[in-house]
């Protein structure tokens, strides 16, 4: 009887938390509609995006079974691709719907997903938009990537009997503390109790999910899909354009600063100047996290006397080029494939939280990154365990010294590149098969009954 009373109290607390959340969401719904009208004036593509965000589909639903994958942004969306490809091959009769929440992710996934996958923007987390979305698409299963806990989306899906999974499940300390705070904890407990499969990336995250309300029986360690995705990308054929750029790098000492943030670019300028004192024929390639900042970066570099070639302008790398600026979205993996050393940014200064290092390692780069990498620290430790010399964490001074060593020591450079590839091969081994078998057992069997 006591247990029953406790369950009833939990249910009441969850209903109150959901009512509070729904009230807040509904109060901002008029602002979302105003945003839609504003974006209508800015261009048709943005208007279509916001129609989909309000739950209005832009495609008809094909007949038959449909599996829905959801990822908020670029990295999470790309991580889903190996499973989507496996699903397409294993069950070709099933329609696959992929949703995302950002324009950048939509743009990248549009280029990388198979044409038969339906790509849409996810609905905002209001009851009306979510209901409209679910009524139209009527998925037989919903698979969320990494850390997508949207109360209305999850709970309304569960009410409709849709089996739910989270792959590459993350739960940062910050998110854990936020969800643990009253009155949010009953709401997240209600959400997590609806999942049939949660595949966390570490023991630490598994414990956090269970403390917040996930059943231990739904927790399964399957591996990190980012390794499989990175390995798959590294095997793609190089385009004619990239072969031409690679030819322009001959006789240059090249390193790539990838996914950089504004404060890091100041450091990269200092590092280039310091390296230039001892490394001949030096070329620094900068690929900012936000390519839209390219013009600003170019002006800053030119004011300091650098000879800059810009990718989006089609400019070639000459013998006098100091910096090559990659300001086109979706090309980073292509450049990883043609450079020997990559510094993965978003990591050099406090307040940053790192970016995916697996893509650079899979391409055969020596991987350098900073100490401020957020949840990617787990990946750093995991890769170092699989291959001790696969990733090197540095501060600004350490980056200068490490780059100088590798740019002037060909034998050491070759050895470390092999170490990085070895770690990715180990991490990717069997992960897609394990994920798919778990989806078959815990999700699709329920979905296809």
Automatic annotation (TrEMBL):
Single GO MF descriptor: transferase activity
EC class name: transferase
Domain 3-deoxy-D-manno-octulosonic-acid transferase N-terminal: start-end pairs: 50-228
Catalytic activity: lipid IVA (E. coli) + CMP-3-deoxy-beta-D-manno-octulosonate = alpha-Kdo-(2->6)-lipid IVA (E. coli) + CMP + H(+)
EC numbers: 2.4.99.12
Record's GO cellular component terms: membrane
Active site residues according to the UniProt entry: 76
The keyword Zinc is assigned to this record: no
Keywords from the named record: Transferase
Top-level taxonomic group: Eukaryota
Transition state stabilizer (site feature) positions: 146, 226
UniProt cross-references to InterPro entries, sorted A to Z: Glycos_transf_N, Glycos_transf_N_sf, Kdotransferase
UniProt record, GO biological process: lipid A biosynthetic process
Claim: S-adenosyl-L-methionine is one of the keywords in the record: no
Protein family (similarity comment): Belongs to the glycosyltransferase group 1 family. Glycosyltransferase 30 subfamily.
Protein name as catalogued: lipid IVA 3-deoxy-D-manno-octulosonic acid transferase
Species of origin: Physcomitrium patens (Spreading-leaved earth moss)
